[in-house]
Amino acid sequence: MASSSVFPPTTIISSNQSNGEMNVLQKHVSFFDRNNDGIIYPWETFQGFRAIGCGIALSTASAIFINLGLSSKTRPGKFPSLLFPIEIKNITRAKHGSDSGVYDTEGRFVPVKFEEIFHKHCHANSNALTSEELAAMLKANGDPKDYAGRLASWTEWKILYLLGKDKNGLLHKETVRAVYDGSLFEQMERNKLSAQKM
Question: Membrane spanning segments where (predicted)?
């Protein structure tokens, strides 16, 4: 996939209004609930990644990693399922450590923590992260003993950087903001569909 910015530098795309009753973390993942039944199965995760322009290998790896990692956490007290479903209503139970803190424990967006990412870690450009700045942020947020949380954060941010950076290798603030409520995924799918029609 080409390394082009998903959004023009000054654009923020609003989230799907039909998800108004969801918290922001639930909105973030609901894009991958392809049949809107409140449950995300591995094949839906795969379909979602393909819809935003990821290749088969990355989509497959993401489906395995995400569903294996989150299924049991979002299904407390239930017998493990070999289908590895993720229940969106319980997604806050899957919140991991070594993250930015932009989602609170109830899945709400914390503006102060979001601004902190750019205030603390952006040096070359006040509204965009370079690859080196992103690596420094991940290192600063990582708890040395939290191996699972560090791996999850590294994977999430590296995929976002791969898909959302512009031609100069910058990950813009607007792009990062849009991923938190899931509107980035919706826009990327629209962009892919538009490109296919051309």
Answer: 49-70
